[in-house]
Each structure stands twice: as C-alpha cells, then as structure tokens.
Amino acid sequence: QMADPFLYDTGERSRYGCLGHEVQIEHIKAYVCRPSFFTDKAVIVAHDIFGWLFPDIRYIVDLIAGHGYITICPDFFKGTEPWKTTDHWADFADWMKNHDPMKVDKEADVVLKYLKEQCGAKKIGIVGFSWGGMAVHHLMLKNPQLAAGVSLYGRIIRDTEERYNLLNPTFFIFGEKDHTISYDQITLLEEKLKQYCKVAYKIKVYPGQVHGFAQLKPEDMKPDDKPYIEEARRDMIDWIKMFI
C-alpha cells in the first residue's frame, strides 16, 4: 500500500469560474487565458495528476495571465483519464506507467508552435506542479525553446548526471513537509546542480508545507499556510519575470 501522497483532501474544492477558454491544438485540447493587452511573452502550465480540467490549475493559469503572460495549460494526458480522488493509491504505479512525465516532448512542441505561430509569442517559459514539476525538469533539460522554468515539488527521479545539465534558468520549489520528496533528495539535487549546471538555478524549501501546497485557491487555503503559498507564488512569478 503506497502512502497517500496528498495530505489535503483534493475532493473538497470550491468551484472556480474560469477567465479563459478552451482550444484544440492538433491532437490536444488546452486551456488558454490571455492578459487584457498585447504581449509576446507566454507561459506554459504543466498540470498535476488531476489533469488540465482541475479547478486549482485553471486558477493558476488565470493568475499568471494576470501578470501579463499568454498562459496555456495543455492536456498532457491527451484525453486519457487523469488520476481521480476516488482512485486507489495501490494502483498509482500502474497509472504512472501510462502517464510518464518524461514523455511530454511532442505535446510541448505542439504547444510551442501554437504559441509562436498563432499567438505571436517570442519568449516562452514553463511552470509545473507535482507531475507537472517532473515534466518541467525533463523539458528544461531537453527543450532550448523554453527560456525559463519553475518546477514545483516534482519528485526528483532518476539520478543520472545529464539530469543536472539544465539548458535554461530553472527554479525548484519544495515543501518542507512533503513526504514524497526527502530532504536528502533536495540536498543531492543542490550538490549536483552546483557541479553540473551551467545556467542560473535556485532551490527553495517552504517551511511546514506539504505536497501540492502552492496551487490552492484563496478560499481553500488554511490561514497558517497562506503566507507560504503566497510567497511561493510570488517567487514563481518573479523568476518568470526575471527571464521572460
């Protein structure tokens, strides 16, 4: 029996009225929100295991768009079932085999092409949460078109040297009380990045925070966590603004 990686109840979420709209791009659907003025800067949002329809992730898309970026969350699961709050954690490993965060390259290329050709984007960054954080780590090693990345509590997967040779500036956000990611893993990540990474990077651990802390909507936050959630989001936006 695998420990439930989420310490909050993902079933209890307030509804969210989205500000953006859905589009079909080649073989994938995506949720897009644009700022009220023209910009040639864009951010891709990589969703967590609950997929592109989950209210939390749409809230984040709208939040980033509010900072002046064309923001898009593609369905990286390509129409297949996301993980559901009613699913059993014992089946999680099997589900992950069919939802590999290292196999997002094709979808990322489709979205990058759309942003450049249809939206006039010239500089593009990416942020990702949990499953999406792993996808971001992978893409920042593989895709030079992404000018900056923020990986939020993506588990640190395989330990190979090329895993630290990031192509562009990347910021890693973790929660101190995330029991899916050990402190040792974070320390190792730091050591290896120091050794192999040739671009700007940053690692920050937020006190008392569990896995998934940073994408909660305001009404779903606990008062004790609120300052850390808001700080993490500010830090995420600041990193994007620094490079995009």
TrEMBL record:
Name of this chain's protein:
Carboxymethylenebutenolidase homolog
Gene3D superfamilies noted in UniProt? alpha/beta hydrolase (3.40.50.1820)
Spell out the family assignment given in the record's similarity comment: Belongs to the dienelactone hydrolase family.
Compartments reported by the entry: Cytoplasm, Cytosol
Q: Which GO terms describe its molecular function?
A: hydrolase activity
Checking Pfam families in the record gives: DLH
Name of encoding gene: Cmbl_2
One GO CC term on file: cytosol
Species: Chionis minor (Black-faced sheathbill)
**Highest taxon, organism lineage:** Eukaryota
Instruction: Outline the extent of the Dienelactone hydrolase domain.
Output: 28-242
